[in-house]
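Researcher: I've been going back and forth with a colleague about how Glutamine--fructose-6-phosphate aminotransferase [isomerizing] might be arranged in three dimensions. Neither of us has a model we trust, so I'd like an independent prediction. The organism is Pseudomonas violetae, in case that matters for your notes. Sequence below.
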Amino acid sequence: MCGIVGAVAERNITPILLEGLKRLEYRGYDSAGVALYTNDDKLERMRRPGKVSELELALTEEPLLGRLGIAHTRWATHGAPCERNAHPHFSGDLAVVHNGIIENHEALRDQLKALGYVFTSDTDTEVIAHLLNHKLKDLADLTVALKATVKELHGAYGLAVISADQPDRLVAARSGSPLVIGLGMGENFLASDQLALRQVTDRFMYLEEGDIAEIRRESVQIWDVNGQSVERESVQYRDGAEAADKGEFRHFMLKEIHEQPAVVQRTLEGRLSQNQVLVQAFGPQAAELFAKVRNVQIVACGTSYHAGMVARYWLEELAGIPCQVEVASEFRYRKVVVQPDTLFVTISQSGETADTLAALRNAKELGFLASLAICNVGISSLVRESDLTLLTQAGREIGVASTKAFTTQLVGLLLLTLSLGQVRGTLAEGVEATLVEELRRLPARLGEALAMDSTVEKIAELFAEKNHTLFLGRGAQFPVAMEGALKLKEISYIHAEAYPAGELKHGPLALVDNDMPVVTVAPNNELLEKLKSNLQEVRARGGELIVFADEKAGMTNGEGTHVVHMPHIHDILSPILYTIPLQLLSYYVAVLKGTDVDQPRNLAKSVTVE
Ligand code: F6R
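Model: Here is an independent structure prediction for Glutamine--fructose-6-phosphate aminotransferase [isomerizing]. You can compare it with whatever you and your colleague have in mind.
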């Protein structure tokens, strides 16, 4: 993970680097640092543990000015998050920032130590700095030395380097960790995400796997993985809706939860006809490819994986298509047997998640029919490398805990289910028209669920002193329970586990006592009576129940049972609706516990390392 910003200009670039780092904090916030070739012709750096604001404060007290520089915000992999391990790392007159992991760092460290290099950090990155320094002794030119250096690195990297000896340029390398060049007038920039540079330019050039770039004030030169000089297309990015602003809300997460009716609406726009899903929303060849699909394999991580788990119920129940769902970190290292005519579907908010991306790349070798990405970022690697795409229209998600991305993914997956069923003629009569109608009503239903905000806030008080929680669901609500548990643990640090309610008596019931609240989602469906029996089992052991139940489910408050009534909704859409109170619950518990809601400890928004 981590974030990189760099600039070569004729003006002082410190504010540009700092602003870029702030915009990249979603990628990590364990420590931050900047290295500048200063106006006194020296290479200097400032590094601070903690958030970018700590670095900013330090730079206010002791300013550093320069026209060439690199900066970094870190999510620690090798070495604790302290100043010594913060990037940039120096070796002699050069400074390096790095995203990714160098797998052979131990062997390289031993070789470099034998050559007399002294290490001052525990990071894998420092080996890059010393190796480059060593190469420079023979090769003299910074770009040439970087090309030789990366040949010896195993693993993933996005790298940016400056040297006080060659202060006319910034050099960069990409392999497994994205980098983008921002093009200016008489100045150029580099970042791990174009978002960091939106303040200075709207023209971008994306580096491809294996690329090396030499970025000067007036020119950019790129070499591909074979060392051939190449031109990369420059693209203009016009969407102005990126501005990060909490508005009236206390946290981005709460704002994003409340944006869900609008972003679900946006995700549906242009994708529905009167009573059908428009299959071409998935791309011009979608209809032809979908007609051939006999199986679906979904791969994703975290919250996006939970969306895939819900989709499995839909694909099998509505479209009659067998579906498998797996977390990307497992899928990518497993010997997979691919059934003929299987569509490979990835789901990702960022489109840069390392495991998901690697799984897609592996899948290309395995004989899948085609690949489809359901993704929130149109310019992401996942979208660029997939055959078909459906973009969710959640807009930028800043809170580390994913909320609106999840519900829009679910909408995208339901559109996929209906499209596959439509093209293959496997939907029951009238189902598509009914669900299209229900989808149109969904934003209003989500608004009704959000209106329960203050009720859920009160319920959250039950959790403030608890250390463990169980989440239960049945059928397509089981992944909703998993998502609820993930939300609670990641932002409130309360241990939360999700179980299919029917599994309770096969083990977890042993945990239930009056210190273990049990949260359940209970729409009014054919599994309701079975769920009610499971809840009795909890009550009989003194467990306190919090039930989000359909207003028609016939469930009422009682001793140790807190029922929150939900608006009635078509059962197929209920996973989307029932997600809302669980998001609100985790949010309010976290607020009560005083945690850093938008940037919870140890996490980062975009997981670009494996
Ligand atoms: C949890 C969360 C993570 C992400 C996961 C995948 O709230 O945000 O679990 O869902 O890291 O990220 P994407 O969807 O960007 O591939």
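Researcher: What would you highlight for our discussion?
Model: I'd start with this: The first helix runs from residue 14 to 24. After that, consider the following. Residues 301-304, 348-350, 353, 356, 401-402, 486, 490, 606-607 surround fructose -6-phosphate (CB under 6 Å).
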